[in-house]
Amino acid sequence: MDPTFKTVIDGELVELPATIATIRAALPAEQAEQFDAEVQHAAADRLPMVLAQWALRGTGADQEDDELFRRLQAGEDIGAVEADDDAARGAA
Questions:
Q1: From which domain of life does this come (predicted)?
Q2: Is the pLDDT of residue 89 over 80?
Q3: Cα 25 to Cα 29: distance, rounded to the nearest angstrom
């Protein structure tokens, strides 16, 4: 069985393809060439990010993220904390 990415989209656990071959196979034909070009020219340290972005295409995750960022930009407190926030790590 091929590896998968696991993420939550719209409150549901979703498994997405996580190899170059399975991501490419899941794309519409018109996007395959663009995918091939981007993967072939991605720096090695960015390849996991590029693959995750392509795997997420068409899942609705972008719209969910856009809505979250609109809420943040409007000043809504969504309970997020900065990653380097001492309180988030439980430090005193």
A1: Bacteria
A2: no
A3: 9
